[in-house]
Write a structure and sequence with these properties.
The protein has about 240 residues and is an alpha+beta fold. It contains six helices and eight strands.
């Protein structure tokens, strides 16, 4: 494992104002494990970074969904990538890896500050999960990973009960058989989790309210989602 990917403590120590593996000032702290897992469930696509060998200096990075399984006390996940992806070497070796989950983000203009004369900033939410790959090598378990991944995403998409979730059994058997041979499934055993929730919550309430209103009216990607996340800090 590369020295830059050392295992950190489960959470940043209270008051260190820096985080452990993620830069997390105290006022942007996001460290409740249930809330962190809820965030991951709603933002399942991870950027996974790993090295194929302990001595390797060249990282492999893949975007793929990670699905939490088990209870909220455990950091157990499942996932899959294409078999021709070079990162399969890391999975087969049971390497350590970092999974980064990014939520909405938005630019914050100095024009929106009324109390404090400041410079531009950025609001965002993200979670970093560190752990180890565990290869799944049976076709039956690989299909189970696909079923659970599809179920998780379909249930989320059909949460209004107005649509019927799609299931893997609805696909032609020969297509499922062929595609399942083209992927590598894995378990991801989390060892630490840390997040940051930067929503201008450390600013003056007048500025928080004005920033939230401007983001709500902003048409750029992520702005309205960030505005919604800021509501608990508004008055």
């Amino acid at each position: 494992m590369s020295p830059s990917m050392h295992q950190g403590a489960t959470y940043a120590k209270k008051g260190d104002d820096s985080g452990t593996d993620v830069f997390t000032p105290d006022h942007y702290s996001f460290d409740n494990q249930k809330e962190l897992l809820d965030f991951i469930r709603g933002n399942a696509l991870a950027q996974i970074v790993s090295y194929s060998t302990e001595q390797s200096s060249h990282p492999h990075i893949s975007a793929t969904p990670l699905i939490h399984v088990g209870n909220s006390e455990e950091l157990n996940f499942i996932g899959h990538i294409a078999k021709r992806n070079l990162q399969t070497g890391s999975i087969q070796a049971g390497s350590n890896a970092v999974a980064l989950f990014c939520g909405p983000n938005a630019y914050v203009s100095p024009r929106w500050f009324k109390v404090k004369n400041t410079v531009p900033t950025w609001n965002y939410v993200s979670v970093q999960l560190r752990g180890k790959f565990e290869l799944i090598d049976s076709n039956e378990e690989t299909l189970d990973v696909l079923k659970k991944t599809i179920s998780h995403m379909e249930q989320s998409d059909c949460s209004d009960n107005k649509r019927q979730p799609w299931e893997l059994k609805q696909a032609p058997d020969d297509l499922v058989d062929r595609l399942s041979q083209m992927i590598v499934a894995f378990r991801f055993k989390g060892e630490s989790i840390e997040g940051v929730r930067r929503l201008c919550q450390d600013k003056d309430i007048v500025d928080i309210n004005n920033i939230q209103r401007n983001l709500q009216a902003d048409s750029r990607y992520g702005a309205k989602a960030i505005a919604d996340l800021m509501r608990p800090y508004c008055q």
